[in-house]
Amino acid sequence: MEHFHICPVTSYYQRILLPVCYSLVFLLGLSLNGALLWCVCCGTRRWSSTVIYMTNLAMTDLFYVLALPPLIISNAMDGLWPFGNIICKCVRFFFLVSLHCSMMFLTCISVHRFLGVCFPIAAVRFRSKKLALLVSGSVWTLASAEVFPTLVFARTGVIDNVTVCFEMTSPGHFKVYFPYGLFLVVVGFLIPFLVIVTCYCSMMKALYCRAADRICYCRKAYMRSKTLYTLFVVCLLFVVCFVPYHVARTVYLFVRVYMPEDCALVNTVIISFKVWKPVVSLNCCANPLLYFWGSGRHRQKLRAWLWRRKMRVQPSVCLVDVGGTNRSGG
User: Fold this and answer.
1) CB-based contact 287:58 (threshold 8 Å)
2) Which residues contact 134 (CB under 8 A, 6 or more apart)?
3) Nearest CA to 98 among 287, 248, 225?
4) Domains in the chain, start-ordered, CATH in brackets?
5) What does the pLDDT look like over 195-228, one tens digit per residue?
6) What is the Cα–Cα distance from 60 to 37, expressed in whole angstroms?
7) What is the mean pLDDT of residues 148-155?
8) CA–CA separation, 85 vs 93, rounded Å?
9) CB-based contacts of 127, cutoff 8 Å, min separation 6
10) pLDDT the model gives residue 311
């Protein structure tokens, strides 16, 4: 196990901020994505390409939240890693694979919607179930191949007599990791980001022009305005969740490689990076909410399920109340 002594880092916020935020994300992400998968798997008779992409997105978000408990425990223990080197590598690997798969499936969904809105006739042949399954398998394979070197770079080490699991790699390997870290940013974030923003901007422009058309009926204009608003919210959430995190990660990597002696700067970029990490995690909670919000059929299905549960609970409560009244009156 490697031993290092690096710049002293302010970490008091890490014992509170990250465990609390990750715990909330874990609970919300597990319940929301579990509910989404339940609704899709139990209530979908015909699996369209949209359902396939959304199911895979929910699965990536579930894998993401399942990688959080070891990080919650480690951050609560002020960075101490008690789980060993193998679990350290696996947690970092699954964390990044889930993040990259989420980006890629969001890209697939945005392209899918773009074709349906801007090229509805030509898009029919590109929105098939068979193609969606092929693309989904390719996304999982590509993301795993991109992140596979993490199994080599991620490792445990000892800093000031404390065993830690390094976020990217050990301090002695940052220069070797730097080109790979930039590759992950470009391929795993920048390219999908440009595709998603381009698709949503094109869709919003097309829908805005149609909604402004005087020939358009009121009902259609309302639906297009609602879709336009939904697209804007999705695009905004995507930007807020992913952009600051990847910018902070890139700056942190650059400083650790080229200015490691400037301890004040290193502290600043580390705090910025750690603060934005919980924000990117919120995306796995936002995805199922936006899906339920945008799908009236699944909203009705969820309300019907909750109503059935309520009706099953209410008779038992009434019986208990009546029995209690009889006993007190006797």
Assistant:
1) yes
2) none
3) 287
4) 2-294 (1.20.1070.10)
5) 988 988 888 888 777 655 544 555 555 455 566 6
6) 11
7) 92
8) 12
9) 48, 49, 50, 112, 115, 116
10) 59
CA distance 165 to 80: 8
Question: Is residue 260 within 8 Å of 171, Cβ to Cβ?
Answer: yes
- In this structure, the strands spanning 156-159 and 2-4 are parallel
Q: What residues does 4 pair with on adjacent strands?
A: 159
Angle at 286 between CA 280 and CA 290, to 5 degrees: 145
Q: What is the pLDDT of residue 266?
A: 85
Residue whose tokens read 């109340």: 321
* pTM, full prediction: 0.80
* DSSP assignment of 111-145: HHHHHHHH-TTGGGGGS-HHHHHHHHHHHHHHHHH
Read out DSSP for 39-106? HHHHH-SS--HHHHHHHHHHHHHHHHHHTHHHHHHHHHTTT---S-HHHHHHHHHHHHHHHHHHHHHH
Residues whose CB is less than 8 angstroms from the CB of residue 234 and which lie 6 or more positions away in sequence, other chains included? 200, 290
> Which residues lie below 8 Å from residue 165, measured CB to CB, with a gap of 6+?
74, 81, 83, 88, 91, 92, 154, 155, 156
Nearest to 6 by CA among 272, 185, 274, 255: 255
Q: What is the mean pLDDT of residues 55-71?
A: 90
Average pLDDT over residues 27-51: 82
What is the residue whose two structure tokens read 């696996």? 90
Nearest Cα to Cα of residue 246 among 163, 184, 195: 184
Q: How far apart are CA 100 and CA 273, in angstroms?
A: 18
Expressed in percent and rounded to 5, the helix, strand and coil fractions of the chain are 80, 5, 15
Supply the pLDDT for residue 180: 94
Element (H, E) at 15: none
Q: Each residue of 275-285: pLDDT tens digit?
A: 888 888 888 88
Report the chain's mean pLDDT, rounded to a whole number.
Answer: 79
Angle (CA) 141-40-313 rounded to 5° is 140
User: How long is the chain?
Assistant: 330
